[in-house]
Amino acid sequence: MTVDWRDKYITEKGFRFTELINDDFFQPFRVLYQAGHYVSSIKLMLVAVDSIGYIEFGESSRGEDTPFVKWLNEYADLTSVKVTPRELWEHRNSLLHMSNLDSRQVQKGSIKRLVAYVGSIPPEVELLEENAKYYDYRALIHEFGQACNKWIQSYNDDPSKFDQFIQRYDLIVSDSRMLHIPLTS
After folding, report:
1. Predicted structure pTM score
2. Domain boundaries, the chain
């Protein structure tokens, strides 16, 4: 039984980076998505962006962009999703803190409310877009995957980042790396 994530993902064959990210971040929100728990899936995906942003950039100073926004700006192309990193940050705030769509910035009117959908919106459905933007959650998942690929590649391009990755990743918790001890009855 292994306690340290490194025992499982760093082997004599090398670092299984993609597998680690899949097991710790993609698999949990994929399970929820496949079960039709889309809002819970979105929440976990946004937590994944938060965690990966922290791994890459550490803590942010007051007045600067959050690691979440920085990571998306650096690695994601959200053009096809038609949302901005800042809008996703506010979406994250509203969903994770209150399980609603109105963060403080949305309430102030400085950012539009984001509304996710899964599937195709029929042409006869009229979306109320005055204060809201709609995005395809599947498209966001795809773009998050592409951004993770680009991020992982950055470690091949700059191996000196790996030490900091290890330090910060050791602080991240996940189901796949949780110590499971069989309970006795």
Report:
1. 0.89
2. 5-118+126-173
* Nearest CA among 152, 151, 145, 149 for reference residue 15: 152
Q: Which of 77, 110, 76, 72 is nearest to 89 (CA)?
A: 72
What are the tokens at 141?
Answer: 């998942």
Q: What's the average model confidence in pLDDT over 136-141?
A: 97
Alpha-carbon distance values, 132 to 16, 26, 85, 127, 136 (Å): 40, 27, 16, 9, 13
CA dist list (Å): 100 to 24, 127, 131 = 25, 18, 15
pLDDT digits (tens, 9 = 90+) for 40-61: 999 999 999 999 999 999 999 8
Per-residue pLDDT for 77 more than 70?
Answer: yes
Residue whose tokens read 């499971």? 180
